[in-house]
Design goal:
Layout: H1 16-19, H2 29-42, H3 46-59
Helix pairs in contact: 2-3
């Protein structure tokens, strides 16, 4: 390995913005605590765990079955 590298000609990854999009979402404390507890068990950050769960729901076209009275 070199002691120093020259990054003057470097450019940003053109695909980086397509990887994830930052949003604001409001979640119940119970839901956050649930994912935080699981994240400690498996060693994955809780936000990544929530993202993985939502991606799985989208991939399997899982829909919530709600009935309003």
């Amino acid at each position: 390995m070199r002691k120093e590298y020259d990054f003057t000609a470097a450019r940003k990854n053109p695909y980086a913005s397509q990887l994830k999009k930052q949003i604001t979402i409001r979640l119940d404390e119970d839901a956050i605590d649930y994912f935080k507890s699981i994240s400690q068990e498996v060693g994955i950050p809780y936000q990544s765990l929530i993202n993985l769960y939502l991606r799985d729901c989208a991939a399997t076209h899982r829909k919530l079955n709600l009935t309003w009275k």
